Amino acid sequence: MRMKDIRMLFMALGLFIFALCLILFPKDVLEASKSGVAMWSDSVFPSLLPFFITAELLIAFGVVSFLGVLLEPLMRPLFNVPGCGGFVWAMGLSSGFPSGAKFTVKLRKQNKLTKEEAERLVSFTNSSSPLFICGAVAVGFFQDAAFGLLLAVCHYGANTLVGIFMRFYKKTSPPSSPTASSASLRTAFQALKKEQEDDVRPLGKKIGDAVTTSIHTLFMIGGFIILFSVLYRILKVTGAIHFIALLPASVLSVFQFSPELAFPWLSGFFEITVGSKLISDLTQPDMLEKGIIASFVLGFSGFSVQAQVASLLAETDIRFGPFFAARWMHGFLAALLTYVLWEPLYIRQIDQPVLSTEPAASFFVTSWQTIGTWLSIYGSYITIGALFLYLYIIHTKTFHS
């Protein structure tokens, strides 16, 4: 029997066992589904929708092409990607997963990126948002704003290092455009004008398409969040996750870390929110150990996020393999940076708090905390309103067609 046939057989068997567990544990499945829906409607949907719609419109009106010309002298030598990758990088940093993959796919479909450039770009433009790191993890879970600064610096610093390392991935492949030694405003405006001339859709059509495309993508993201919430609950209720946790426990023992971290670490492999919360709940391990594991979990992103990215990449010829390898690299680099920067960015902040004396740093943390609180109150209303808008646009399109 061929390896491909064996793999398909195991996949079919796994799906059968999963379906059987759905029948055997209906109460746990329902609770996990409701938890996933609540996370999606209260936080993920309202926080990502404005970024998605805005980015779609920026692409449609040629702003990304304009920025691409200006950023070419920076992005090409640093990451070996075109200047338009700078826009994707910025959107990934500000809005979080899986924005980088969504807009990389968009640019690849428009032939602004080669296959190799897209694989490089998607590897370092997907990261956790500042709202999640500083608001949910640091303040919400660990009750420690100073910890958020450390996690954010290590997370985004490691992600930048991943991009620099990935610039050597298939570096001999031909670029999508000639490398520009300097940026020209005239050339940038010409690129913007050409993009607008090529896109003949009226304004209302562009806005409607931006809304429907964004909401459609967020539906997909919500489906994966619910699916992996149910999968994690089944692994937990059947006790399988404790058996699987023996592997990370053996890895932790090599570094003389507390064995209590094994289960939260494994949970983080499936879903970063669950893993981060379980790490923060532990009392025995010291803060450095918890910080190292939490940084790895944030960098690796979890199989739930990776499945979302894989679904987006499947629309193109962009391979998932380089992205998956980059997630391991991101996790290890973030953990290493946490160990190296532990004293200057965390211990010294406790002894001489920076966040209480520096207004800019204090404003940064409290702002993300305020946004998180606001979303928890009004997020579901935004989601419901957006869904009604989506149905109205779809109805209008169907009526006119």
Automatic annotation (TrEMBL):
Describe the location of the Nucleoside transporter/FeoB GTPase Gate domain by residue ranges. Answer: 43-137, 219-313
Keyword terms of this UniProt record: Membrane, Transmembrane, Transmembrane helix
Listed transmembrane segments: 48-71, 78-101, 121-142, 149-169, 210-232, 239-257, 292-313, 325-342, 371-393
One Pfam family in the UniProt entry: Gate
Q: Name the domain of life this protein comes from.
A: Bacteria
What is the official name of this protein in its record? Sporulation integral membrane protein YlbJ
Lineage, opening ranks = Bacteria, Bacillati, Bacillota, Bacilli, Bacillales
